[in-house]
Amino acid sequence: MPSEGALNLGGTRPVDGSGPTLPFALPSADLTTHGVVLGMTGSGKTGLLLVLVEEALRASVPVVMIDAKGDLPNLLLTFPNLSAAEFAPWIDSDAARRSGQTAEQVAQAVADNWRSKLADWRLGPPDIAQLRDTVAARLITPGTTAGEPLHVLSALEHPSPLWQADVEAAREALGASVSLLLRLIGRDADPVRSRDHVLLSLLAERRLREGKPAGVTELLDDIRKPPLAEIGSMSVDEYLPKRERTALAKALNTLLASATFESWRQGSPLDIAQWVAPRDDKRTPAVVVSVAHLDDDERMLVLGVILEQFLAWVRTQPGTQQLRALLVFDEVFGFIPPHPANPPTRRPLVQLMKQGRAFGVGVLLGTQNPMDLDYRALSNAGLWWVGRLQTDADRERVVEAMSSDVGLHDIEPSELSDVVKQLAPRWFVMRNVHRAPGIALLQSRTTLSWMRGPMTREDLRRVVGKQ
Fold this sequence. Notes:
Shape: globular
Distance between the termini: 34 Å
Number of strands: 15
Strand content: 15-25%
Helix content: 40-55%
Radius of gyration: 24 Å
């Protein structure tokens, strides 16, 4: 168990590689200024992210994880006995046979190897048991029942307390839900330009502020018989003529009747406060939102709604200098691109990077492809872990971003680029603006959970005990 507020990430040594590797513990409060983990395939990036998650949970910090490629559900693969019997159900028997072994033999080898690697960090079965017993894990899978389904549009159908506590935050969350609804029917979803968006938002807000649901069924009634006389300085019929309102209503009705849409309206409500709330049994919440099974457009839409809701929750929290909660997003490439690209995930992520610190909420982003990231937003991160990057362009962009605010001081940028090029797996250049020296090397420890690899929908069903 780590000391209070300390995250035991592995070992560190000077950036020039000299001297012994010494144990390294990161004060949890440092993560309130956010972190970025970069590294090519095989660098150990996802492993370091999981180590950070495990350590935050061991320090009783709730974590919400967004998983776009299928690796973060590995957090649920905790085997307290490190026995072959625990690993065996997850071994690919066909792959074992092709290697000339039985599944049992492979399971024993994996168990022995994991036990040995953990022992190198003075970890073992008691630490795994402690993590498993003190964490309340949830696997949420929007659009499928492989895990726990999510009612993505619950902000419309279930009035939120935000309408009494923070109207601005409630409107932003509502806007994301209305945008999702319009994109699902192929209409302009821009909150400023789209007349459909303005009309639906006004109709929904009117209901929600009265404590009434504003689901598609209710909105259809209001579109046909608007309860508003004017929108802005124009009559409703001038702003959006009846013929256009009828076309909008028909498109929404078709969506309402579709079996696909029904999958977005089933499951637990999208309630971030409930996700991270302290539990009566004292276990620490760990929520994995898996969207690896969705196509690219669906991921953008769903995560835009989730992140807007997360941002709205953050803004309702009192200020603190301690780490209250951690948002982890693995493989953020494409979700926070530079201007002028503006996917629905960009705004809430940028705002969280700018504002999360004041509320004690840290954001941890990871990607293996750093070229198409908004480095102006990421420059708000006080912590960087950079694994091996193969291309000159990747290294130049990352070194420039790391040195943009405070300078490297301890090493020249060209030297740092050479270090990054030669890093071994699970070794990272670590930049921490809170500590001196600001640049060092970090070797991440072995994860307590088993890093099996990306999980399919069938794997997700198995890991949560579904048949």
